Structure formats: structure tokens, C-alpha cells
Amino acid sequence: MSALGNIIKKEIRELLTPATFLPVVIIAIIFGSLGSSIQGVQEGAKEKPIVGLINEDNSTLSAVAADVINKSAKVVFNSTSESDKQLGLDAVKKEKGIALIVIPNNFTEEILNNRSGPLEVYWIMQGAGLMDSISSSVVEYLITNINTNISTELIQRDISINATVVLSPTQRVETTYFKDREFKGLSPNTLNGMLSSQSLIVPIIMMLIIMMAGSIVITSMALEKENKTLETLLTLPVKRTSIVTGKIIAAAIIGLVLAVIYMIGMGYYFQGLQISQGGVDLADYGLALKSQDFLLMGVSLFVTLIAALSLCMLLGTFAKNYKSIQTLTFPIAMFALIPMFITMFTDFDNLPLGLKGLVFAIPFSHTMMAPKALLFGDYLFVISGIAYVAIFAIVMIIIVVWIFKTDRLLVGSTRMKKLKGQFLKIKKF
Amino acid sequence: MFAIEVKNLVKHYGSIEAVKGISFDVKEGEIFGLIGPNGAGKTTVLRVVSTLLKINSGSVKIMNYDMEKEADKIRKIISYLPEDAGAYKNLTGRAYLQFIANFFDPTQNKQMVQQGIEIAELGERIDDRVDTYSKGMMRRLLVGRALMTNPKLAVLDEPTSGLDVINSQEIRKLIKETAKKGTTILLSSHNMLEVEYLCERIALIAGGKIVEEGRPKTLMDKYDADNVEEVFMRVVHQ
């Protein structure tokens, strides 16, 4: 074999390890699943949106609007009286529809009197994720079509009215219903944007902190092993519990300091975003975090940080040297990224059962979902999340302390070595 | 009372039996050496005595404390210097000694650090970061760390490993002086001359068993050898 071939063979053998391939395979699977979900939503968006229609205005222009709605949407409720509004809303909700559109009796009259015709839209918002706003965008497109068709009708009939009204013949009067609350004057997109600016900061910060503080703990364990300081530490008169909790608390303090720095920066960023979105204040709609909410948020953040660091300590016990840090940090990064993306893209309530279970099982999800839950007063969800994460952290710490009390920390898993040896024998055979 | 009492010690790593029923005693204030080829089980014995590893069977007592039941008490009176040990690289030598001293009696804290500095003999470099130290300086710092606590038992794994002649000699002298003050020393070494010079009694380990034990002089007479190295070769090849 040539020298070059010899080197290539050796390099490939060194690189051909599960540690090299597993992260890439998992990332490929995650992106594949995300792609399928996005495709599913897009296909859903191609279908006719489910709406309800109340047409009180028995005239030509309202007939144009109703015609567009009937042709472009699946109308599950049809009425001519606004007194049926509640019935209509119930019917749309039952069919998991998007909106109830009400054409009031003065619709045509207003347009013909040089004023935009009011079109009442009662949105049923299913979730507050980026994906959830796609369906409302379909209905917004439908309303744009109504405008276009009415403009065409006005031009064709050569009715003498103001050009501005011809170009923009309708005026939306919007109300959004979300989690049993009514938001007058807000569209789902505006509400979604506002909620995101309030609740997106925590998942992003949490993800960054977990990854940074987590890698601190794993690095600390790897360096203890690589620099051979661990053996000395374990022979000193100090309890194993103190070593484990000491490392976790130190990393948690660093993590919290990082969190505060991030929060200041991100806070300014989202404040700017809020102003750019028209300065709608959610507090005007009763959606503001109270002092007890901030307290719960703090507890949730702290407990999650401890849980993350305990998990990192557990992974750190497998570290052999500095090189192994990257591989061991990967599961933590995945655990932080999955709930962050899921909470950004869609609402927990709208997830399929399997994915709901996965998100709930990942301890980092709870803090990421807490701000939205607290805004809507879902304290049970937040408190049960804190309890779950606290139990997870305690179990992790117990496991890590147990590992510290065994030989495993210094000599590794002999069972794994044995299995590896047997596997190599079979491979050679 | 013996400082160390090891009876029928067995230690497995999975299916590998590293130590196969070793027994030996070390008297208080004695320097006892374990010698043997690589993989003979010396470090495993030292790690067990230092409370780092659990035993599979047999018994180990340090100053009458049972290893399995009273490991926390043992850690208060022993000091372990692993082979190739390191220190926290972002600390200075002094800060490292202070960090270790903080685990012991707070009233003795300052005195311990001062003693560690004196043993390490690093001069002004004691206030430099550990990552700037040479191998010899690092080993001296660690010997200082191991002996500054005045342990009743010091377990030293290859104490002069990788050191030049001058540094090695200084450390050997230090070990002798420490033993004179009453500290029991259990050490392992590949350097037979070192063992002969330092140890009052030695045990030769091969294949996880003690194959010979006694005073270096007695063993040299028994095997008609000029030095411990010859004793070792003869015993191992028997």
C-alpha cells in the first residue's frame, strides 16, 4: 500500500466512529421531519379555508363578496342575520375553521356613498406559532380577492365614486378569538406578532444559556479527566454530593449572569420590534405578565437551568478528554433546539399527541412555553412543568452522585468495553 | 496498629481480574514500596488504598478505618499523588495549594499553604499560573500539595516519574524526611534504585499477585543479587 493510501486508510478508520456520524444523522432526521411538517401545512393551505358567512346586505356588491367567499372557501355556516353571530362562531369553531365573515346591511350603501364598506371578520385563532398564521393568511388573501372583484364591478358598472374607494372598497373590522379571549381590533397576524415578541425572548435565551452553561459543565468534567485533577479531588475530604452540586451551582451562576446579559440585549431588540409593529400593547387586552408571573418565570428558568446542568454533568462523566466535549454537547444542543423551534413554529396545543409527549418530556420545553402560558393564566401548565423539571433535575443529580461513588467515573463502563471488544472480534471474524 | 492492612484484595475491571487476592501490612511511619512490571496491578492497589476504587472482595483497613464503611474518615488522613497528575491550569501555584487546603481544618489553613510552598520550593514562580510550569515544577507543586496536609498516610504513585536526576533526588529526600516525621508512605515505582534507597520494605507484584515481600537487603541476600533490580528479574522469571 502506498504511503498516501496508508494515511487515508488510517484517517478514515479514526473518523469512522458513531460520534462523527450520529449527530449528522440526527440533524438530517430532524430537518427531514421539519420539512414534512412544513409540507403538510403548505398542503393544508392549498385546501379551501373553512369559514362562516353572514350576509345581511341583500344587494349587488355584497353578492359579489359572498360569491367570492362561496367559491374560494368552504362555507360551513350561512345566514342572513347578524343575530346568528354566536351560532356562526360555534359552527366555525366546531369545524376548526378560520373565520366568520359578516357583511353588514350597510355594506353596499357605504361604498356607494364614497366610504369603504365594513367587512366584519371574526377570527378563530388556533395557535400562536409562525405556522399557525398561515391559515389566516389564506383568508386574508380571500378578502383581497373580494376587494379586487368589487373594484372590478364598480369600474365595469361605471359608478361615479371616489377613486380611493374604488381601489380599496372594503374596510376590515376585526376581532380575534384566542384561548377563550376576545381581541377587538386585532388580526391573528398582529396578535401573533405581539405574542411572539413577548414570548420568543425566553426560548432563545434559554437555548443559548443551556448550550453555553452546559458546555461549561461538560468542559469542566473533561478537563478534570484530561488534566488528571479528578483523581486528586476524589481523594480529598469532600462529599461527592458537594463536588456535583458545587460544579452545577457554579455553572448555574455563570448561566444566570449570561441570561441577564442576554435578556438586556434581547429586551431592547424586542422593544424595537414591538414599536415597528405599530406599538400595540398587549397589556391593553389584559395580556401582561404580573409580578407573580415573573416569579414563576424565574423559578422555571432556575429549575430548568439546574436540570440542564445536571444532565450535562451526567454526560460529562462520559467525557474522556477535551476532544469528547463536542460530541457530548450535541444531545444538549438538540434538546434545546427542538423545543425552541417547535414553540416558535406552532402552539403546543396544536401538536400531534406523539410530538406533544416528546416536547413535554424534554425538560427545557417548559420554560420556553411558560411565558405564553402565563400570559393566558395557564398556571397549572407552568406549575406542573416546574414540578416535572425539578423531579428530572433531582433524578439526574442522584444518578450523577451515584456515578461519582462508583468506579465508573475513573475506569468507564467495563460492560461497554466488553461489548465493544466482542463487537470488534465479530467484525474481525 | 498497622497503617495499612490489606487482606485478600480482589479487584475486577469487568471480566479482567487486575488484583488477585493480595495481602500486605504497612507499619506506621514505614515507607513501603510496590514494584512490578506495567499492568501488574500496582496502580490499582494504590487507587483502592486511596478510596478511589471499590473492591470486589477482601478487606482494606487504613489506620483501623474500614475502606468500605469509613471512606470519608480515611480521606481526612490520607493524601494521594497519582502518576501524571496535574493541577488546575488557570490557577497560580499558591492558589492551587490554597484550594486544596480549604478542604481541611480551617485553623491550619495558612500553615498548610506555607508548608506546601516550602516543600514545592518554587520561589517566586509559586505566584505564576500553573500552565507556565515545567514538568519538574508541576511535580514539585503536587508533592508539596500531597505532603502539606501532614497526612498519616501518603500514597505516592511513581513520585519521581518524568523528573530529572536533581529533582528526583530532592523529592526522595523529602519523602524520607516526611516519613521521619511519622507519615506512613506507600509508593510505587519503576525505578529500582529509588525503591532500594527509599523503602524499608517492598512487595513485588506480577500478574495481580504479590510474588515476593520483605526488606530490600533481605531479598537481595535471599536471591544472591547485587540490587533490587536483579531480585526483581529473578523473581519475575521464576
Q: What's the short version?
A:
Chain A has three domains: 1-46; 47-193, 3-Layer(aba) Sandwich (abc type-2 transporter like fold), CATH 3.40.1710; 200-428, no CATH class. Chain A is built from 18 helices and six strands.
3D structure, described in words:
The complex is a heterodimer of chains A (429) and B (238). In chain A, helix 9 (201-226) runs parallel beside helix 12 (291-316) and helix 9 (201-226) runs antiparallel to helix 15 (365-375). Chain A has helices at 3-15, 18-46, 60-72, 85-94, 107-112, 133-156, 163-167, 188-199, 201-226, 230-234, 240-276, 291-316, 325-345, 353-361, 365-375, 379-405, 408-411, 414-428; strands at residues 50-55, 74-79, 99-103, 117-124, 170-178, 181-184. Chain A is built from 18 helices and 6 strands. Helices cover 68% and strands 9% of the residues of chain A. Chain A has 3 domains: 1-46; 47-193, 3-Layer(aba) Sandwich (abc type-2 transporter like fold); 200-428, no CATH class. Chain A has a 6-stranded mixed β-sheet, with helices on both faces. Chain A is elongated and about 95 Å long. Chain A is an alpha/beta fold. Chain B is an alpha/beta fold. Chain B has a single domain (2-237), classed as P-loop containing nucleotide triphosphate hydrolases (Rossmann fold, 3-Layer(aba) Sandwich). Chain B is 37% helix and 26% strand. Chain B is built from 9 helices and 10 strands. Chain B has a 6-stranded mixed β-sheet with strand order 6-7-8-3-9-10, with helices on both faces. In chain B, helix 3 crosses helix 4 (109-120) and helix 4 (109-120) packs antiparallel against helix 5 (135-147). Chain B is globular. Chains A and B meet through helix 10 and helix 18 of A and helix 2 and strand 6 of B.
Key descriptive features of the protein:
heterodimer, A: 429 residues, alpha/beta, abc type-2 transporter like fold, 3 domains, 6-stranded mixed β-sheet, 6 strands, elongated, B: 238 residues, Rossmann fold, 4-stranded antiparallel β-sheet, 37% helix, globular
